[in-house]
Amino acid sequence: MADLMDNKVLMAFASYATIVLSKMMLMSTATAFFRVKKKAFANPEDCASFGKGENAKKYLRTDESVERLRRVHLNDLENIVPFLGIGLLYSLSGPDLSTALLHFRIFVGARIYHTMAYLLPLPQPNRGLAFFVGFGVTFSMAYSLLRNKLYL
């Protein structure tokens, strides 16, 4: 365990992974907050506190701002989970610290920019470019692993 704590790349990965995981958790909390604020719920049981029967059904609806937040959260799940798995393996493979930091920082920046581009919203191709930059970082780490460290 002490050897892992001395691994600067792994500690850097843990730091940046914590940032993107915290961002992803914030998106789920923001989605729930805006569902209540906008009274736009996806499930009938969620509407129960706002009325009974037909009165409650009017809150069973979609809202554009809630849906934007929900889509940001779904996109985070699709991109952060692969980054976590591949990034962990990459971190343990002994890459150069400066190269690893570049990967981690670009990924985190791309995810934060993607969220801003989605929520403001910024015109395309802003969101698309942010997605592909983050995807490219994860792919670059995977390629490095497959090319240099893993046995196929």
How large is the radius of gyration? Answer: 20 Å
Judged by helices, strands and strand pairing, the structural class is mainly alpha
Distance between the termini: 28 Å
**Count of distinct strands:** 0
Q: What form results from the Cα inertia axes?
A: elongated
Can you write the helix and strand succession as a string?
HHHHHHH
Strand composition percent:
under 5%
Helix tally? 7
Q: Compute the average pLDDT.
A: 92
Q: Indicate the percent of residues in helices.
A: over 70%
Largest sheet: none
Poorly predicted parts? none
Explained architecture:
The chain has 152 residues and is mostly helical. The protein has seven helices and no strands. It has helices spanning 2-5, 8-38, 44-47, 54-57, 64-92, 97-119, 126-149. The mean pLDDT is 92.
Topology diagram in text:
Elements: H1 2-5, H2 8-38, H3 44-47, H4 54-57, H5 64-92, H6 97-119, H7 126-149
Helix pairs in contact: 2-5, 2-6, 5-6, 5-7, 6-7
